[in-house]
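Hey, I was hoping to borrow your eyes for a little while. No rush at all, and the record is pasted right below:
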Amino acid sequence: MGHIEPHDFIANLFDAVKRFNVICLDLCRDMWSYISKGYFKQKVVKGEVGSSTMPHKVNPIDFENAEGNLGLANAVLSHLAEKLPVSRLQRDLTDSTVVRNLGVGLAHCAIAYASLLKGLGKVRGMRAFVASLDIPEDAKERLAQLTPATYIGKAAELAKAI
């Protein structure tokens, strides 16, 4: 019998968090692109600095901050998920050094999620964008009714196909 605490559950949890973070990272990059291309606009927040070269422009800084923190979080969580389940002859105590940094990866997640939500809260123009699409009116109405809570896409269909 070994002398160390197994950390497999932490590795499994952090692998799941990393997958969620990749989805959030993709959203950050997409939103940055949509804003940069002018598909969406951001609300101007009084006192917030815009672009250094174009003060009237609002940079998607919250999405950029979220992206950076998600990258850092996943780097730390990857190391933890790979390191913690492994030990030398069940007597390796290097996990004690690594475990002290559990909060680092999770803190970057918390900062990233807050930045992402802040950025999403500044986005305006979704309804105007949908209204401008060259698609049938019933499709516009369906799109306008979508919310993150009600949209599951083809998840059910894909799950049944497995």
Remarks:
- The longest helix spans residues 8-36.
